Amino acid sequence: MSQNPPNLRPDLAPFPRFDAAPRPGQPTIGMVSLGCPKALVDSERILTRLRAEGYAISPDYKGAEAVIVNTCGFLDSAKAESLEAIGEALRENGKVIVTGCLGAEPDFITGAHPKVLAVTGPQQYEQVLDAVHGTVPPAPDPFIDLLPATGVRLTPRHFSYLKISEGCNHHCKFCIIPDMRGRLVSRPAHAVLREAEKLLDAGVRELLVISQDTSAYGVDRKHDLSPWKGGEVRAHITDLAREMGRLAQGTGAWVRLHYVYPYPHVRDLVPLMAEGLVLPYLDIPFQHAHPDTLKRMARPAASARTLDEIAAWRATCPDIVLRSTFIVGYPGETEAEFQYLLDWMDEAQLDRVGCFQYENVAGARSNDLPDHLPDEVKQDRWDRFMAKAQEISAAKLAAKVGTLQQVIVDEVDDEGATCRTRADAPEIDGNLFIDADFGTLSPGDMVTVEVEEASEYDLWGRIV
C-alpha cells in the first residue's frame, strides 16, 4: 500500500461513489464533484433532491442521460481543472450542466465550452434541478424509488461531512469565496443537530463539521436559541459542538471540527476535547505567521498571540492535534518574512500541515499588490517549507511508535487495512496501515492498534 505523497492538496473532496443500479426506464444523471468538502455537501444535496424525484445516479458517463459538473473556482489551477472536467464530460456524454463556484462566472465557462446546457452558481439548487428537468424529464415511481433518511451521500457510509453554515464575512485579499458564496449564513442549531442525529442513527461513525468559518457559526443569527430535546440550544459553535458530542457519545462516533479560525472563544472548545466529547483535533487555516504578511493578506490573526493560544490549548488538552494550511510566495513576502514563518513552525510544532504556492485568482484584491514573486522563488520556498513540515511530522509520528491508538477502518483489500487515528481526517491527513490479521475488519470498524513503524506521514501497526 502506498504512502501519502507530501504534496497532497488539503482541499480535495473524496471521490464520489455510486453503486445502485437504475430500474428499467428510470432517468439517470451523472455527477462530477470537484473542490472542497463543502462543495461535496452541495453535490449530495443536489443528488438527494434528484433521487427524491425518481432519478438514478450513474457511476459513469455512458450510463448517464446528462452530467452535472460541480466546479471549483478558488484558484486558477482549480478553474483549469474545472474546465478540463467540463470538457471531458462533453466529450464522453455531450449533455452537461455546470454548477458550483466557477458557475459564478458563466461567461468564463461558456467562452471555453459554449455547448454546455446550463450554468448555475454555488448553492443554486433550484436552478440546477430546473436545468435537469429541461434536459431529462423526471419519471418517478413512488412504489419503488425509496430515499434513505440521510439522503444521498458521496462519502463512504462510515463518515459524513456536516455543513453548518454557508459563506464568509472575512475579506482576505487572496480569497474570492465571499464574492462567490456570499456572507455568512448559519443554519439553525436544531436543524444541524437533527441532521447529526439522523446520520448517527444511520450508522455514521465520524461526523466532520465543516463551513467556511466554523468559529463564526451563529454570529449572523445573533446566537439565537432553538428548541432541542425539551430545552434550548444556542447557535454558537461551543454549544453546537457540545450537543453534537453528546449525541455521538451514545454510539461511540467521532466528531471532528474543520476550518476553525483561532478566535479567543476557541479556547472554550478545547475543554470539550479534553472531556472526550469531540476529537482533540483543530483544523485552523493560519495561512502565514509574519505580522506584515498577515496584514497584507488582511487576515484576522496575529502570530504572537496565536503561539500563546496554541500553548493554552495544549495546556488544557495535551493530546490536541493541530492541522493547518499556509501560503508561501505571497506578494511582498521577503526572505526575512519567510524565515520568520519557518521559525514560527519550529515553535508551533503543528501536527499536520499543507502548503500552497501563491497564485493570482481573478477578482482577488491581492492581484493588485506590488512585489509579486517569481515562480522559482515560490517553488524554492514551498520546498523548504515542506521539508520543515515533514521534519516535524516525522518526529511526531516517530514518538507514537509503541503507543496504543484507536483507529477507524476506511478500506480493506488483499494487502491489508487502511485506517486513520483520531489525529487523521479522511483524504487530507495520514493513514495507519494494518498488514496482518486484518481479515475480519470492515470499513467503519474501530479497533485498538499498537504502532510499530512510522514515516513522515503514515503509521503501521498491529491489532491488540
TrEMBL record:
A matching Pfam family: UPF0004
Recorded catalytic activity of this chain's protein: L-aspartate(89)-[ribosomal protein uS12]-hydrogen + (sulfur carrier)-SH + AH2 + 2 S-adenosyl-L-methionine = 3-methylsulfanyl-L-aspartate(89)-[ribosomal protein uS12]-hydrogen + (sulfur carrier)-H + 5'-deoxyadenosine + L-methionine + A + S-adenosyl-L-homocysteine + 2 H(+)
Region (Disordered) residue spans: 1-20
Keywords, alphabetical: 4Fe-4S, Cytoplasm, Iron, Iron-sulfur, Metal-binding, Ribonucleoprotein, Ribosomal protein, S-adenosyl-L-methionine, Transferase
Record domain Radical SAM core: where: 154-395
Domain spans labelled TRAM: 398-464
EC code: 2.8.4.4
UniProt-listed Gene3D superfamilies: Methylthiotransferase, N-terminal domain, Nucleic acid-binding proteins, tm_1862 like domain
Chain intervals with Low complexity compositional bias: 10-20
Domain MTTase N-terminal intervals: 27-137
Binding residue positions for [4Fe-4S] cluster 1: 36, 72, 101
Class of this enzyme: transferase
Annotated compartments: Cytoplasm
Presence of the UniProt keyword 4Fe-4S in the record: yes
Cofactor note: Binds 2 [4Fe-4S] clusters. One cluster is coordinated with 3 cysteines and an exchangeable S-adenosyl-L-methionine.
Cofactor: [4Fe-4S] cluster
Record: residues binding [4Fe-4S] cluster 2: 168, 172, 175
Primary subcellular site in the record, as a coarse category: cytoplasm
Membership in a protein family: Belongs to the methylthiotransferase family. RimO subfamily.
Known role: Catalyzes the methylthiolation of an aspartic acid residue of ribosomal protein uS12.
NCBIfam families: 30S ribosomal protein S12 methylthiotransferase RimO, MiaB/RimO family radical SAM methylthiotransferase
Name of the protein in its database record: Ribosomal protein uS12 methylthiotransferase RimO
